[in-house]
Amino acid sequence: MQKQFPMKEYLLFCGTVWVSDTCCFPFSLGGVKKFLESEISVYVKSIEIGNSITEDFKSGYLIHPNHQVKMVCEDLSTDAHLKNGFNAIGFSQGSQFLRALVQRCPTLRIHNLITLGGQHQGVFGLPNCPSLSSRTCERFRQLLNYAAYTDLLQNFLVQATYWHDPLNESKYKTSSTFLADINNEQTINKSYVENLQRLNKFVMVQFNNDSIVQPVQSQWFGYYKPGQDKETQRLKESSIYIEDRLGLKKMDEQNKLVFLECEGNHLQFTKDWFRKNLFSYLT
């Protein structure tokens, strides 16, 4: 049996650049970093948010994505190893954070963006949040259900910034301080569209047996149909695609969008699967 990387839920910017539940644990991102460096001899940078692994871990819950994206943009822009461009991989919520980096940091030249288990259209539920007790998961769920769009939670709980309530789309669009902005839900920021278009490929990996991302289709930019939380729709059926608010329709027509499946649970993949499906976008 192939060894699996037991990735946890939270923050990761990566690609020849990384950041995760923490930047450096050897059983998660540290292991992937070593794997890539040894197998394809690439420069892999781990980004630490804060001054310690503990602070880095807390950032996945408590430091607003807007601040994190700005910090990472400034850090990577001064890295001489990356000046000629690089490929980038995002894991779980790091997927949409890294996409925000592409859209907001034009000083970087990112060739291919790969996201694994991301929540590009947000989440509506926390069925199994890792690294936390079930009781804490339930408290988070209750908080988000009733107060996700308050100033308090939007400013102090990372997961609230990509909480997408399909039963109240108007509130989501006006009150989300992160996801609604990077998805051009209110107004169309043309620079976001132009910067995303610079990618050679935008690769999205969906874990079909995911017990953490709800709904699973968010990993491929799908989501619940507006006004209910039972039926889902694909990216091509959504207004963000039909109106081409983010340029994804144009990217699709240019064959820049790649949709991959993995049968595992959240971020559960083997080295062989990674080699077979993703190495071609990293070399």
UniProtKB/TrEMBL annotation:
UniProtKB keywords: Disulfide bond, Glycoprotein, Hydrolase, Signal
Keyword Metal-binding: no
EC number of the protein: 3.1.2.22
A GO CC term assigned to this protein in UniProt: lysosome
Reaction equation(s) it catalyzes: S-hexadecanoyl-L-cysteinyl-[protein] + H2O = L-cysteinyl-[protein] + hexadecanoate + H(+)
Annotated SUPFAM superfamilies: alpha/beta-Hydrolases
Domain of life (superkingdom): Eukaryota
A single MF term (Gene Ontology): palmitoyl-(protein) hydrolase activity
A GO BP entry: receptor-mediated endocytosis
Keyword Transferase: no
PANTHER family, per database record: PALMITOYL-PROTEIN THIOESTERASE 1, PALMITOYL-PROTEIN THIOESTERASE/DOLICHYLDIPHOSPHATASE 1
Similarity field: Belongs to the palmitoyl-protein thioesterase family.
Protein's name according to its UniProt entry: Palmitoyl-protein thioesterase 1
Organism: Anopheles christyi
Taxonomic lineage from the root: Eukaryota, Metazoa, Ecdysozoa, Arthropoda, Hexapoda
